[in-house]
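Supplementary notes for students who missed Thursday's class. We covered one full example, reproduced here. Read the sequence, then the structure, then the short commentary at the end.
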Amino acid sequence: MDGVSAVRAYTLLAVVALLAGGWMLNEAPSAEFDEDESSMLPLSDFAAEGAAEGDEDTQGDDQDDRQGEDEGEPVLESDFDSEEKSDSGYDLPTSLVVGGGTALGSLAVGSVLFEAMRVTVLIALATPLVARMKANRDDMLTRGRLLGYLEANAGIHFSALRDALGLANGVTAYHLHTLENNGEIISWRDGKLRRYAVATLSKEELSRIRNPIAGTRLAILEVLAASGQIGLQGAEIRTKLEISRQLLSHHLAELRAAELVIAASEARRPNWRLSDVGIDVLTTSREVARAEAAG
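Structure (token representation):
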């Protein structure tokens, strides 16, 4: 399925960034301590040498003071340099942690808002975990249930299918992914949703399922189906559905272009009725709507 490999690579990079950033942040204090400790060693040595020279040499205190100042300045500069390096060393680890957390957060938010993305993330991340479990009779029964339900409810989307069978997200995604890889089912994206059907459907059946009628157009088909072969005039349809003439004209034009509605006579203002294709599409749309409502 498209996007699965990208999600896995994206997640792996985010986790690596988090681990690397966390490790660098934990190692930074110890490294700073070691550097500060090493910088103090020359100071003790210089102090010991200064004390020895003061006992042996009695030429004057001014020369000892100047020597102590000259030897002390490099030590202070090295201390400042180590502090600057320690502060700048936190930039990269912090960026890695923030970047990794933001990447994982974006996946989580996208999974909540979009079902299609949630399915992709589940397949990319949950499937490898579930696949480690030993295949058994229960797995075969679960896939059989999925296939049977999809045969009776072609075009149902992921969440409705999951809820109808009472399965968990990861289990549903794993078995659907396995069935699709085996060529037993197909899936496609429909806006925010991902829909499924058995692979044995004909092209005509698949075309109707992938383009179900909904909303006002479905209501028009329902009204015309109730009128039978006699059909209804536009004014009667508007009265029953309580919609404007412009809206009805728009939807009727689309339904006629799809050959779902035909004129029942040659009159200037004929009655409209369902075509044979329209009856099939209405039946399919009803089944999809019923399955999703039940889920």
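Commentary. The first strand starts at residue 156 and ends at 157. DSSP finds twelve helices and five strands in the chain. If anything here is unclear, bring it to office hours.
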